[in-house]
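If your schedule permits, I should be very grateful for your opinion on a structural question. The matter concerns a single protein, recorded as an amino acid sequence and a row of backbone structure tokens. Could you please explain, in whatever detail you think fit, how the structure tokens follow from the sequence? I set the record out below, with my sincere thanks for your time.

——
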Amino acid sequence: MRMNPEPPTSNRRTADRHAIELKVEYKRLNTFFADYTKNISKGGTFIRTDKPLAVGTEFVFALTVPQLSDPMRLRGKVVWITAADKATAESPAGMGIKFQYSSDDERLQTEAMVERLMRTELGEQISTKLLGREPRK
């Protein structure tokens, strides 16, 4: 069940999302989960899972990025969910996550990582077009 009346494709996003599949690991109660994200932006991500956390849940997750030797540890907050019984091909089961930052420096580092990832996965020309400027190196 969608807990937010606005669908994830609404204009409430502040940054475009891009199709890049990354492994995401997080803990729920005493169980570790390994799911996947298929899109990411500088502001958040969508984690595809049949067992989304409740809206409002804040948690730490590890994002495996091919260019990095160690997973990135990020804090996020669940801002909307699609339950497995309400999922469709266009709106799969999962949860929309907004990144949470403890400082502007942490935010800038995460945004730069996302831009580098876009450049690597999508190429310089497409990344520049999507961002409206050249990605940070």
